Give the backbone structure.
Amino acid sequence: MFAKHSKIITITAIATSLSFGALYATAQEKYGIGTSVGPDEIAKYDNDIHIDGTGLPEGSGNVALGREIYEYQCALCHGEKLEGIREMGAQTLHEGRRDIKKLPYATSLFDFIRRAMPLTDPGTLSNDEAYGLTAFLLVETGVINDPNLTLDAESVKAIKMPNRDKFIIDPASRFTAKDLEDK
Amino acid sequence: MKIGGVFYCQIRFEPSYSIPISGRKIIMKTNRRHFMKAGMAMSTALLADSALAQDTTLIPSRGPGEMIDSSVTYADRSPFVKDAKMRGSANGLSGGGFTPLQHSRGMVTPSGLHFEVHHSGVPEIDPSEHKLLIHGLVDDEKIFTMEDLLRFPSVSHFHFLECAGNGMGEWMGPRGKTVQQTHGLTSCSEWTGVTLKVLLNELGVRGDAKWLLAEGDDGARMTRSIPLWKAMDDAFLAYAQNGEFLRPEQGFPLRLIVPGFEGNMNVKWIRRLEVGDKPWWTHHENTEYADPRPKDEIRAFSFYMEARSVITSPSGGMKLNGAGFYEISGLGWSGAGTVSKVEISTNDGKTWQDASLQGPVLPKCHTRFTHPWRWDGKETTILSRCTDDTGYTQPTYDEMYKLQGPIGMMHNNAIQKWHVAQDGKITNVR
């Protein structure tokens, strides 16, 4: 049986090398396409924040700055009290899918504000403003009880969101804890 | 918009217009109707000489159709066909369009009717300027132009894409009137591109790598974490859909396809892939697209779009024209594998019969099913349920409630029921 198989493999290999030449000879063959880049070029693109805080920028902002930015740039859609203005397509930030209290990592909140908000002018907030907004939202939703909260890279990294341990990898889900660890 | 480069250059075809009837061109320009008359007179004259002259059945009732318009280079539909996406956006930037599944045939969705969901509108991207960076835990960090990506070996696969929120509004009760409203955030296309496996092997993935971050080039720079095992299994970067380059609203010039996983992970206008060792828990993968569970718990990384089916015809908003024969037709799909069975009940779930799978039956792909039905003219409820080749069967709403709790919103794959009234009217009873 093995002999039979190896014969087929040999024939296939010859046929393959005849028709495609050396290009497809091995799976690990490099195609040599694309341009290698260094840290300077990568820095132009790399803007995300990892959950360990990697990527958090310089700067800082407090609740007062955050409130000011919120009133001018956010309240139109998100509402004076974060209740969400339905007609503007915004849902409440107090409960449900966009409940800020339930976020597992504060790094994600900072990342999303800086990346995607405000909706009509994303990417225009300064780092200080994004830190300030993060502080304002965490205080306004009762996650942190400190009206004078000031946030920077170190303090955002250190926040343990109260709901983090509520995130489960459901045994009924096909995507299991084993997937998260082993694969 | 300048489209440069060897792969985007269009073949210019100048129609020669050499027609072997002298003076025709002039007649066309001066008076088309005049020419038409002249043309018909000529064919009648020719016919008069032949033995078939008396056979008027050969003269087409309409005569020649519209003149060939050389300015039309991309054909449109018949003006009688009105199938349309249902659009919805409160602010014009987030939201999208639902596919009119009630009129779908076969398994492929026309590109122009493919559902769309956006988070910061649709960017216009010049492909000659678009680049993809792959960096992080790889031996060689590289940037690719579109021309680079088109040089790699290509793959083509038919796959459905479904928004995790498809049918979100149905959780609390029957809301949508039509299948477009209840299920219109799923569509199916042939996608062509280069596999992530080929690209990642090109760069050399380091041993500690476990996750990828995919980032789009829209205003929101939308990001999602993709498990590395999935990337190496069957994910690919598509530049073409149904035989042509992607439509702008589908991610032109490049989008990620993560077969069977929730639509949001199939990042459009992709500009960057970062290889890392942990998920990023981005906005769209924490509370936004995760599923609530009893005891305030939240199911994280609920990526699979599980087996689901729906009868698309007859469906909500339609009306049967009296008792008699009707073909029940619908779609089944599974993000975990291949549809192995779709069952139909025409008596509110009391008895079930296997539907015919029309084929081709492909993994992680819409599968068309049909079932012959003689309606006796009495009130009833029709429904379908789908089983995939992992053995998973589509649940009822009651079963989903046990799993999700009553406020579950995403990943609703429950069985859909259509009520048939005595007058033939079909309504959503969910």
Summary: The radius of gyration of chain A is 25 Å. Chain A is about 45% helix and 5% strand. Confidence is low (pLDDT under 50) at residues 1-26 of chain A.
